[in-house]
Every structure is written in C-alpha cells, then in structure tokens.
Amino acid sequence: MTTKTNRIITILLRLLALGATIAAIVVMVTSHESAQVLNLTFTAKYSNDPVFKYFVVAEAIAGGYSLLVLVLSSKSLLWRLTIILDVVVTALLTSSISAALAIAHVGKKGNSHAGWLPICEQVPKFCDRVTGALVAGFAAAIIYSVLLVYSLHAVLSPIFAVKI
Amino acid sequence: MTTKTNRIITILLRLLALGATIAAIVVMVTSHESAQVLNLTFTAKYSNDPVFKYFVVAEAIAGGYSLLVLVLSSKSLLWRLTIILDVVVTALLTSSISAALAIAHVGKKGNSHAGWLPICEQVPKFCDRVTGALVAGFAAAIIYSVLLVYSLHAVLSPIFAVKI
C-alpha cells in the first residue's frame, strides 16, 4: 500500500473515532430520568456515579486528541509522537469503558450477594441511554485499537522484514 | 545503552510483572469472610462478583504470558511479536483493574442514589484483601505500561533519528 492510502485509512479511522466519542458524550450527558419509589422521587443521571463522570472525561480527552491529530500537519514533530499518544488514549478508553460496563452491569443485574438491587426496572429509559453511550464508547475503543495495531504494524513491518 | 543492558532491564520488568500478577491472584482468590447481618450469615468471596473473576483471569493470562516470554529465546519468531502482544496484555490489565476498582469503590463507599449500601463495614478483612489484590494488579498494569513505552521507545528511536 502507498503512503497516501495509509494516510487516508488513518484519517477515516480518526474521524470515526471522533464521531463515536462525540456520540458517547452527548448520549451519556443527556441521559436522566425521574422515578417514584415508595412516594419518594429520585432522579437517575450520569453525574450520580463517579465512574460515568470518568467515562465522559475520558471520551472528551479521546475526542479532543482525535481532532488535534486530524488538524496537525504530518510534517510537525508532534505527529511522530502520535503512536505513543495513541497507546495512552487506547488505554484510557479501555479503562473507562471497562469501569462503566462494570457499574452498568450492577445497575442491570444487581448483586444479590452484596444486597445491591438492579435499578433498570425503575429507570428503563436512563438504562437504555447509558447502554447507547456505552456502545458508542466501546466502538471508539475498538476503532482506536485497530488504529494502534495498524500503526504498529506499519512501524514494525520493516523491522520484521530485516530480521526474518 | 547496549542491547545487553536493554535485555536485562526488560527481563527484570517482566519478572516484576510476573511477581505482581501472582500476588494479585493469590491474595484475591484466598480472600473470603463470613459476617452475620440480622441473623443471616453471608460469605463474601471474590467469586460472588463477575468483575473479580475477570480480574483473576486477566492477571492469570498476563502472568502466563510474562513467563512464556521469559523462557522464549530472543531468536525465535514469536519474540518479535511481543510488542503487539505487550499492547494486548497492557490493555487487558488496564481493563480488568479499572472494572475491579469501580466495583471495589461501590463496595467501600456505596452509591446512595442507586440505593447500594457499602459492604466493607460488615466484611472489613475481605475488603482489605481485595484492596491488596488491587494494589498488586495496579502494580502489574504500571509495570506493563513502562515495559511497553520502553519497547516502543527502542523501536521508534531510530525512526525519530532518521526523520528529524
């Protein structure tokens, strides 16, 4: 493949990642629902859980980074650091989606051993939106993993070719 | 630095990572405590939570991989794939520690909005052991991140030198 094809694929993947992170942030931030349980009204929203806040911050950092790399010229020095930063952003996305999934699982299924009841029956719309945000966040993490393996492959190929 | 120094540092880091993963698995698997609440006896153990099981599996994979790489000859073809596999193992460790930390946080602090009560007051010894396992798991993730940045730096340095 030519360098031009490589660049187009990388740009497309970063645009997709940017779209996925924006979708994850918008869906997560706008998700809230009120429910009445035993005459008490409670509102479920993403900011009630520190893990969901971390998820939004991580997606914002990943989105901002994707945008920055897209507008950066390939000739600047920073561009050469992208492979290291790609590793950091992939780790950040993996970490935030894993933590958010763990909490969402408790929200959906509960944990009878710990006495934590599922809340999705009370606030189904909130749960659906959080699920949507997690799907978008998961997509962003997958896209970044593909981007990383693609970049690593491009960097390592000549080394493999020499040593084999 | 010479190639020999590089290899010694890498081997030391992998030995440390192996030790940390073994410690994390042993401490997590042996953590269980019984408590009596309202005349009901309940036992807290790691296998009650799917996230803690995932944590043990991830640490076992990372430990097994570290051992495999340590015994592999540097001349075999597999050894050249380690940088890609290092990325995968780092992502796996990051994911499992993030998910386990999220659940441990609920266990320690609870979540009043969702009505999930903290359980650490009932089973303090269990909580201490899980905290210990998480510290060891966190150490393993940090060691693998350092190893990855170190390997990437070694691979990318000549590329930087040529292009700058």
**Strand fraction of chain A:** 5-15%
Quaternary state of the chains:
homodimer
String of helices and strands of chain A: HEEHHH
Radius of gyration of chain A: 20 Å
How far apart the termini of chain A lie comes to 21 Å
* Biggest interface found: A-B, 44 and 44 residues
Q: Major sheet of chain A: order of its strands?
A: 1-2
Structural class of chain A: mainly alpha
Taken together, the total number of domains of chain A comes to 1
Rounded average pLDDT of chain A: 85
Q: Sketch the major β-sheet of chain A.
A: 2 strands, antiparallel
Low-confidence stretches of chain A: none
Silhouette of chain A: elongated
In DSSP terms, counting alpha (H) and pi (I) runs of 4 or more, how many helices of chain A? 4
How do the helices and strands line up, and which of them pair or pack?
The structure is a homodimer of 164-residue chains.
Chain A: H1 3-29, E1 32-37, E2 40-45, H2 50-71, H3 82-109, H4 124-163
Explained architecture:
The structure is a homodimer of 164-residue chains. The first copy, chain A, is mainly alpha-helical. The first copy, chain A, has one domain. In chain A, 71% of the residues lie in helices and 7% in strands. Chain A has four helices and two strands. A two-stranded antiparallel ribbon of chain A has the order 1-2. The mean pLDDT of chain A is 85. At the A-B interface, helix 3 and helix 4 of A face helix 4 and helix 5 of B.
List keywords for this structure.
homodimer, two-stranded antiparallel sheet, 71% helix, elongated, 2 strands, mainly alpha, 4 helices, 164 residues
